[in-house]
Each structure stands twice: as C-alpha cells, then as structure tokens.
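queue> holo job accepted (manganese (III) ion)
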Amino acid sequence: MKLWRSRIYVCAGLALLAAATGGRAAAPAFSLSPLPYAQDALEPHVSARTMGFHYGKHHQAYVDNLNRLVAGTPMAEEPLEAIIRQTAGAADKTAVFNTAAQVWNHTCFWMSMKPNGGGTPTGRMMEMIEKSFGSYSGFRKAFVDASLAQFGSGWAWLVQDGDLLKVVKTSNADTPVAHGQTVLLTCDVWEHAYYLDYQNRRKDFVEVFLDHLVNWDFAASRLR
Ligand code: MN3
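queue> job finished
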C-alpha cells in the first residue's frame, strides 16, 4: 500500500482524510493529517506536552507554510510525494522541498508509532530483518547507531531496497522519498522531538522508540 499517493491518506484500515479540495477554491491544498491516536496516548514515553508542540505547532507550521508556498502554483494540485520528488535538489525550490518533506516526514513519524508498540516484529518483517541485519538486535543496534551518528537535526529510517532492508539517516528535511527508497518507518531525531522529555539524551529516546513505540503493523503494510 502506498501512502500519500493522493490527498486521501489511507493506511491499515485508517482513512485519514486530508484536504481533498485541491486548489479549486480558496481552500488550502494541504491540511494536517489527523493523529492516529490521542495526544497523550504515547505517555509516558512521549508526553502530551511534546505532542502538543511537535504535532500541534511544528507539524502544523510546516503545513501552513507549504500552503503559502504552493498557493497559486501548479504544485497546489499535486500529491505531496510528487512535490518532494520534483523539488529535490533544485536550488530555487529549497523552501518548498524542505517544507513538503517535513510535512511528509512528520506524518510518517506519527504513523510509525502506536501505544504499546515496539519490540520485535513478526512474520515477513521479522524474516526480512533477520535476512538484512542478522538478527533483531543487529537491526536495533544499526538503528540506534544511525540515530546517534546523525549530526544535528535529521531522521533515522528503515527502508526497503529490493529484497533487503536498510537503515539510513538523513539531515534536516531530507527524506528517502526524494531518493526513490521505500520508507517503512522513521524516527524524528530533531531535538524538538525529545528535548522536553529526554533533554539531551537522544539515545534514550531512540531506544524507547524502538522498545515501546514502533508500529510494526504500519511498517509491514508498506513492504513491497
Ligand atoms: Mn519534528
């Protein structure tokens, strides 16, 4: 299943309705996709206060800025992934790329978590993890290491590359979507993702993400 192919976001039985009005009227092209759980549902691992700022302020601001940047342009009629791909690497489209990618990345991050998540996956996902990393602990170490190796703001990702899975990291707004990789899940390692709850302890946050929050059903639904 492919997310964000259109303005109707569909995932794992959840119909997440985004703005379907395109640029026809004065309505904005993009809207903040609903959280798949309550803002306090990830406590004690991610506080409602963090979610209030991160989803309600940071993510909303990216949506608002993207609408401002694409208003009156052909991009207002296009799917988010198409905007990301066509602006990636374009020196005169940096603001649009950064903003569109951050809208996509954050929606993916919320979907990558669930209450009582984390731990080892099952089925084909576990088989692919063992084939790609040797073991779940091999994957876990690779993901934590990539998160810590990301200097400054960025993202850690699990992506599918053919028959194998890979852990990759990106800086700032950069996203595997721009590089043709199939994203399975992501962890936001910008400081705003964890500073209120974990201060400077990024490793603690990423380990909690893996052990208590990862939504393996979401990741498995994106396997090709
Ligand atoms: Mn963020």
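queue> The helical segments are 48-70, 80-87, 94-111, 123-133, 136-149, 195-198, 202-213, 216-221.
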